[in-house]
Task: structure prediction
Amino acid sequence: MRFLFVGDSMTVGSAGDFTWRYRMWQHLEATLGEGGYAITGPRTELYDTKAGAPLSHAYGDPSFPAHARRHLAGWGEGWLHMAPVVADAVTAARADVLLVSLGLIDLGFYTDSGQTALNVRKFITAARTANPGVRMVLLPVIPNIRAESDAPFAAECDRFNTLLAKAVADLDTGPSPLLLASRPQGYDIHTDTYDGTHPGPSGEHRLAAAFADAMHQAWGVGGPYAGALATV
Result:
């Protein structure tokens, strides 16, 4: 199976981060084994906050292999940005499983919940033009610290998650299954992030676990999350 990570700043990570992509790589190594999968994508960098650009290769674990660092994620990028580029990325990477965490940046800066949900549908359609059998696991938006003081924003996050679930139900097909992951179990923005939005080590494990457990439970892929915080 060829996995493509698609996401925003929570997925690309910044200089010094391990990233949840790293935690997922460890899980895939433990459950599928070397040669049982591949991680694909056009990018490998982390975001450099000082430079304001994705220029860093300073992962928390320098031994994180280059081939497993691949992704399609960007700081400040959302469904709005990924829908036009996902078909080319899927084609070039020959991806057959997309692990997608998007939406928070859209709702915060670019589009309302309804517009964001339309971009979800465009994304799914575009990915399927590149690979009619592609599988996708979609993570609901996890409201960040802004939602605690901005009630309209919190409401938009809730409404988008409802619309995302509807899109998955409407568009799920046998040849190209869609899977809505659950919010990471026990995820707390005050302890699992370093700034109320971006995951720290415990948050990275919980995000990886949400995807890993969803695939194992629904599709029998891999196994239950094998990371260090699987039972926390």
In short: The chain has a mean pLDDT of 96.
